[in-house]
Amino acid sequence: MPKTELSFPDLYLKNISKKFRETGFKILQEQEAFYPIKFYNIGALVWYAHIIEM
Fold it and tell me: What is the pTM of this model?
């Protein structure tokens, strides 16, 4: 969503690779992946929703 602040901006490749480059590191290859999350029971879904809300 536009203008939404990221909860953990350092966990995104674009942001952290920029910081590494600024400190003198040379990045030879970078890659990011987002995997779907599967829940097999409602308790797990409720627990996950609770922890990401924090």
Answer: 0.55
